[in-house]
Write a structure and sequence with these properties.
The chain is of the alpha/beta class and 221 residues long. It contains nine helices and eight strands. The protein has a four-stranded parallel beta sheet with strand order 2-1-3-4, with helices on both faces. α1 crosses α9 and α5 (96-105) crosses α6 (116-132). The longest helix is centred in the middle third of the chain and has 17 residues, at 116-132. The chain is globular, with a radius of gyration of 17 Å.
């Protein structure tokens, strides 16, 4: 069993769909804590109090046969990796596998986000991956699509994805790889099929990496 900590309910369907594709008989547990992201946005970052609450939430998932935990919120990603060092089971952030692959394959990477804290967290993640893999020459350019976030907050995912797609068209002009800082942005890819630059999102790579953590053999059809 894999447990997921989300900060929005929209991620449940996405990861259920991935389970259907790669692990149809795997049991998964979803825990949604929207308040953690809302507090981080309001406070301008992850405070010690938010970190403690996030770790408590992660610890609470660690019951009933859960073999690994995945944090799907990029803003809380560093907290998840910190908690991994003290946890009895693996705890990973959803976007680490994507970041590691990106810095190995890309030279000019556009890092795109709709929320400033998530974008900052993903930039820090990519810089750490580049350092770990001795890829200091990688160019990372951040792109904030602030105008899109209000649609996400309203629950208007179609408008959110269309606005993100508008930003991606500009980011693609100077990049050889685009990274989406938030899993919620994945639906924007369908709205900009004319972009030839690869656009990477974290859900699939992270989900498959989580399967590897528990030695689960994928059952793709």
């Amino acid at each position: 069993m894999i447990g997921f900590l989300h900060t929005s309910e929209v991620h449940i369907a996405s990861f259920d769909a991935l389970r259907g594709r790669f692990a149809p008989d795997l049991e998964i547990r979803h825990v949604v804590r929207e308040d953690l992201l809302q507090q981080a946005i309001a406070q301008g970052g992850v405070t010690p109090e938010i970190e403690a609450a996030a770790k408590a939430a992660l610890a609470g998932i660690m019951t009933g046969g859960v073999q690994a935990i995945v944090c799907t919120c990029s803003t809380l990603g560093a907290v998840a990796e910190s908690f991994d060092a003290e946890a009895a089971i693996p705890v990973m952030r959803i976007d680490r596998p994507m970041a590691d692959n990106a810095v190995m394959l890309g030279n000019h990477i556009a890092v795109c986000g709709a929320a400033s804290r998530a974008l900052a967290s993903t930039m820090a993640l990519l810089h750490s991956s580049a350092k770990d893999m001795d890829r200091a020459n990688v160019t990372l350019i951040d792109h904030l699509f602030a105008s899109a976030w209000k649609y996400f907050e309203r629950g208007d995912m179609d408008a959110y994805h269309r606005e993100v797609a508008r930003g991606l068209r500009g980011a693609a002009l100077t990049a050889d790889l685009i990274i989406l800082a938030q899993a919620s942005m994945h639906g924007a890819i369908a709205h900009c099929p004319e972009i030839t630059v690869p656009i990477w999102s974290s859900p699939e790579t992270g989900f498959r990496a989580a399967l590897a953590l528990i030695d689960y053999e994928e059952k793709t059809t």
